[in-house]
Amino acid sequence: MADNVVDNAIAHNDPGGWISVAVRAEGDDAGAVFLVVESSGPVLDQRQVTELARPFRRLGADRTGTGRGSGLGLSIVAAIAEAHHGTLDLYARPDGGPRVTIALPGTDGGATAETRDTERGVAR
Length: 124
Hints:
Elements: H1 2-11, E1 19-25, E2 33-39, H2 46-51, H3 61-64, H4 73-83, E3 87-92, E4 98-104, H5 113-119
Antiparallel strand pairs: 1-2, 2-4, 3-4
């Protein structure tokens, strides 16, 4: 997911533009975790940006440049986030470019009791 979103920010950015990547957690140890990727670019229509999470949706040729990609990347990101009880939010920044936020529920580090015991050398 992260690779796709960062790659999109690079591929669809303006020449000499900027990219911001941030990760943050909210709440206690089991709170939500967010990956936020923003980039510069032209002012985008929010309705079109929201549609990018649907399969085969792309913006015009001025945004897609070389014709790379099929328009599946963000729909796959959305499906993966949903499979992990998370969300994908696409936002057209007022100054131009998109903000992409992936939110996933936090865990205790992802280790189950079996995994923790195995890490200590106790196999079950």
